[in-house]
Amino acid sequence: MARRVPLFYTFGNHMHWVDMEWLWGYHVLPGSIRDMLHFCRETGAKGNVNFDGVGYEKLAAEAPEALAELREAVQAGTVEVVGASYGQPYGLFHGGESNVRQRIYGVRAVQRLLGVRPRTFWEEEFDFFPQLPQILKGCGFENASLFFQWTWHTPEVPKEDVPVVWWEGQDGSRLLTATRNRLNLHQWPEDVDALLTSLAEETTTPADTPLVLQWLELMPSPDWMCRSEVLLPKTKELLGDERFEFRFGTLSDYLSPFREKEVPVRRYGMDHVFHGMSLGKNGDNMRRLSRQAEGLLLAAESLAAISALVGRPYAQWDVYPTWELEEAWRELLQAQHHDNDECEGLCGHVGRFSYDRAIDLAERVLTSNLVSLAQKLGGGRRKILLAPGRRLGLDVEGDLFDDDDWTHTLFCNPLGWDCQVTLARKRVEGPGTAITVPAFGYAVVEMPVTPGPQRAAARKEHPSPLEHGHFKVDCDFVAGRVRQISSEHFPGGVFGPAGAFGFGMTRNGQPVTASPAPPNVPAPSDESGYADNLTFHAQLHPVLNMVEVDVHAKVRKPDGGLNSAFHTKFHLSFRPRIIVDQPYGVSEVNPAGSYLKKYPRGDWMTSPQWFEKVERPFTSLSFVDLVDADDPDRGLLIVHDGSQQWFLDEDGSLRCVLNAYDPWDEDYFQSSVHAGFLLYPHGPITHAERWKIAQEYLRPPIRIPFRQAPEGPAAFGFTRCDAENVALTSLYRETVDAGARFPGYAARAFEANYPYVLRLLELNGEETTARLHVNGTVAAAAWTNLVGEELRPASWTVTGGSTEIELQMRPNEIATLYLDVVEGRKQTRDLDAKREVWATVHRV
Question: Over the stretch 117-128, which tens digit does the pLDDT of each residue have?
């Protein structure tokens, strides 16, 4: 008998509380666990469980017996927990800090509820961006798989001929990774037939035991397609094939021996992959809510953290609103779940409720701390009006700015570097005057007595062009276009003859274009029109040579698919190199790929599916920088507020999707478009400068009017960094309970129960010595991984009431610093001295 070929088999069982239990009921996760264990008993296989972290928490509350069965299987080594993100997001669609918290909250949930530390990343839905290996390694992950299943979407990553590679991130972090290859199986039994046919054609024995890697979505319901009773016959046929000797184990079991072997290194970029999702659909409303909620949460965290340094009275009962902020993060992280993006018409409404709750909680913390800080500075008790906005998510609006008797303004900076703001009163025009607001801090400034500045604005009824000295913007407001932008670096103009913007899409199989309608003119009632109330506004930045463009429209449903989407275009006068950002990273992309994207013809679960070919797509989290390929010292930076799907068209122009219809959503379509862009023709610029400009546009300082000079310090910043290529990205606090199950948790040795956590990001790809200046007395500090485990002690110098800390940072490193700041420790009250208030009052 011929020698049997050795093969290793393992599977991943993907299921989630988000969407699945919402739609099918409480039996989903318990049923999936038991069906998985039945599959293991029947086949002898070992596998991997991929639930969302919130799902494990719901199991603990709703089905503890099923969770106990899973815990027993995990402890026995029959099943390994993989993925372990809290909300199973498409990571590239969400902010860097959201991705960090997804892994932190998920790892802590698994450690708390299942008693193991997740070590292997493997998510069924596409979760990829270049900095992900570093984030995963920072949470304790060692292994990964890059096989993502085709379901509603069609993700693509490079196919490999080898079973295992080192997947390397931008900073050099590596995970031992099972590749996408021809032995990957989807959940359908029919997929096994194709594999058996392929294996039968093998003529040589591979050097390494190949891995047959299969995704399952087990739910024992007749209303579901993937269940063990359907899978077992074909799986047993595969595993019983006499030509092969199958070995069983978890994904970690398979990967472990490769640590002693020569394994190739792969560094995949964003132009090597395709998310396969209908990005841009419904005006990118879900992604915009995600960005808004994350921005609010980061602002609320940093303001609550610095507010404690001023002492009592606190804005809330305790020194820091831990529960409110962590609950807001949980709502945000589960709202970022892939099904809320994919299945927006099916379950997205529940995701929107979670986004709304995250925003409400964050606004509550932010508002209460703004009021508290204003009172401590002598601003008096003020009613702070927070209105949801396009960028940060809020600004102080309403009658406050119409009053004539306020003389000062409190500016709060939610960002980790000094920002400039422009002093302004409503309805007043004049040249811009800028002041600086310290990083993670505030400044109270006296407003000018003479007419203050206001950004030079233009609407359709205003003349064109807009000018700042040599900076000129020529707009056609009737056609909805920027004809040209000329500047010091582009004296001949940034754009080609066709200019930028203009709008088009496909309806009823025909390409159509439209222009903004004149004011007070009804939209056409016939089917030839496609956009109601389309408006196009442009205005100059009040100080810098930039132009802001806003597009608003109600879009009539386009044809299904990305190629038919409502879009705008940028025609350039030069050949560009394209630089974009992803979560906590910046990189150059070369959009050259051609990918298939599929859709249903009717009912999403039962109708036939059709394909479109998507050419040269690329994504951008917040900006696209178009650098002149022939003169790299100049370019056009385009910052956007949430329009993430872009294309490089065959003629060299760039196309940005503003809205699309996704047939997976069936009858659901959101027609609103609210898109903003910042256009900045620039000279030499670094990645850090690009990234910071985008963040300042999206998360501007918050303003509160004062009617008197402050009694406290006129300006304060928690910390600053002297390395321009390093950004401080988040400042928050947590309780030491967060690290209770991690032996190396750094803050366990701190005197304070609420350590400060500071995140840093190197953006230029440079080895750097970063010096931090903290406005406070640091009693203890440690450089840690993302979950707070000490990597190396920090050294610091205290002078007076300030502290200096130094850190050597790798190129593109995400670093975390835990601090015990004396001034921020909780100040307890002597309530015993006031016992008479409560102890005897009931005797009256």
Answer: 999 999 999 999
Amino acid code (one letter) for 761: L
Q: Give me the torsion for CA of 621, 624, 629, 632, rounded to 10°.
A: -100
How crowded is residue 466: how many other Cβ atoms within 10 Å of its Cβ?
Answer: 20
- Between the CA of residue 587 and those of 364, 696, 815, what are the distances in Å? 36, 20, 19
Report in angstroms the alpha-carbon separations of 385 from 93, 389, 414. 30, 12, 18
Which CA distances in Å does 512 have to 501, 505, 566?
Answer: 14, 6, 10
Residues 6+ apart with CB under 8 A from 731: 301, 302, 305, 306, 416, 440, 718, 719, 756, 757, 758, 759
Extended strands (E) in 510-604 = 510-514, 531-540, 547-555, 566-572, 576-582, 585-589, 594-600
Residue 78 Cα to chain centre, angstroms: 33
Q: pLDDT per residue over 685-720, tens digit each? A: 999 999 999 999 999 888 877 767 777 778 899 999
Other CB atoms within 10 Å distance of the CB of residue 360: 14
Q: What single-letter DSSP state applies at residue 565?
A: -
* Assigned token pair, 439: 């990083």
340 vs 317: CA distance, rounded Å = 35
- Amino acid of residue 67: L
Strand, helix or coil for residue 223: coil
C-alpha distances out from residue 460 to 534, 541, 672, Å: 12, 18, 21
With cut-offs at 50, 70 and 90, classify the pLDDT of residue 528.
Answer: very low
Domains of the chain are 5-272 (3.20.110.10), 294-421 (no CATH), 467-515+528-698 (2.70.98.30), 718-844 (2.60.40)
Calpha distance 192→214 (Å, rounded): 10
Instruction: Give which of 272, 300, 283, 351 is closest to 19, Cα–Cα.
Output: 351
Sign for the pseudo-dihedral over CA of 666, 670, 676, 679: positive
User: Which of 322-326, 662-666, 839-843 has the least mean pLDDT?
Assistant: 839-843
Read off the DSSP letter of residue 257: G
Q: Are 486 and 496 in contact (CB under 8 A)?
A: no
- Asked whether 208 and 8 are in contact (CB, 8 A), the reply is no
**Residue pair 295/183 in contact by the 8 Å Cβ criterion:** no
User: What is the distance, to the nearest Å, from the Cα of residue 183 to the centroid of all Cα atoms in its chain?
Assistant: 32
